[in-house]
Amino acid sequence: LPLPSSRSRFSGSLLNLQESESENKLDGETASDSESKSEFGGSPPVPTSDDTPEVLNRALSNLSSRWKNWWVRGILTLAMITFFFIIIYLGPLVLMTIVMCVQIKCFHEIITIGYNVYHSYDLPWFRTLSWYFLLCVNYFFYGETVTDYFFTLVQREEPLRILSRYHRFISFALYLTGFCMFVLSLVKKHYRLQFYMFGWTHVTLLIVVTQSHLIIHNLFEGMIWFIVPISCVICNDIMAYMFGFFFGRTPLIKLSPKKTWEGFIGGFFATVLFGLLLSYVMSGYRCFTCPVEFNNDTNSFTVDCEPSELFQLQEYNIPLVLQSVVGWKTVRMYPFQIHSIALSTFASLIGPFGGFFASGFKRAFKIKDFANTIPGHGGIMDRFDCQYLMATFVNVYIASFIRGPNPSKLIQQFLTLRPEQQLHIFNTLRAHLADRGVLGPSEDA
């Protein structure tokens, strides 16, 4: 008779033990996560630590860890901002090169995390195929960009013309080659793991390569569309940290315990004000407002045009509610400043969710940062997690509210048609303009 009672007590103790173990797991970790860890063989990677320069360690040795981290982040932030100004001064070509380098480094950091988590099986061709797919995707996206923005140069060179004509077919053939290589690399008993890594690589390509491609497209619309959004994200990151450091009391989200509502709200107002001021300063310079175009005569990028209405001062009436507060009835400002409010609002309210997403990713794999490239800041991906989300928004915003038909691109496409097709379009356009009264009788004749 005592045996069932003892057995029930043992079962109850075992149940309590299992419950306590489940409570000790990280937020969001489930039984399937534990099974995956045993299947993938090996514990998660050890959290990375920042390699703070020895000179800073000695200079800040008397400070507490909180203030030491504040000074390290501040000094490195100023260094990065200085570097940002330098590459802007060097021009569009250097900016595009830096975007490409950042993309490759971000891809490397994410793929390295996957390799460290699943390296115990030493999957065949994993790293080789990952970099091969990166090459394929970049060839496709940047080939499209070259065809769009360097049309005259492409048509002038026979090899480039052939590559441009069959670009998508070549891109698809390259991807199929990698796909077949992946299938041939499948190893018995590790199929599921290899398909996990296949998905890991493709999601990384979607997040990193696609967004960096959109950043370059934004740059071609004018450097102001590149600099203002990136600067707003940087400003929001800095001001949210500052407000949170000095005034933060209320936690914002569990994924990032150090984020506070005070920092979030303070960063929002500071970013909107910063966006208005920066837009006002930059709108007065053609080198920032004009589209970036390639000059075939000099084989270099040129930034020179007649500023559009977006970058010409206009007078706006102040709402009656605010007139008594500010004491003005009208205000002169650039229309782009109104658009900057939308950009800065997105950068401060929605942009941080890119950082929260990255925080969730790092928590899932029990790592502190993507890498330890920048002391006090982590890896390159830690600094660009919000920038990629911002790039997509800017590209969608330009396509929806700013960009119209591009006459130069239409002419480029027109010149590639056969003579009889060009003549048909010419006659159709002339008849249309005559019907609207744009062409006079002499011009029509």
From TrEMBL:
GO terms for cellular component: endoplasmic reticulum membrane. One of its GO terms (biological process) is CDP-diacylglycerol biosynthetic process. Residues 1-19 have a biased composition (Polar residues). Residues 22-38 have a biased composition (Basic and acidic residues). It is found in: Membrane. Pfam families: CTP_transf_1 (PF01148). Belongs to the CDS family. This is Phosphatidate cytidylyltransferase. It comes from Galbula dea.
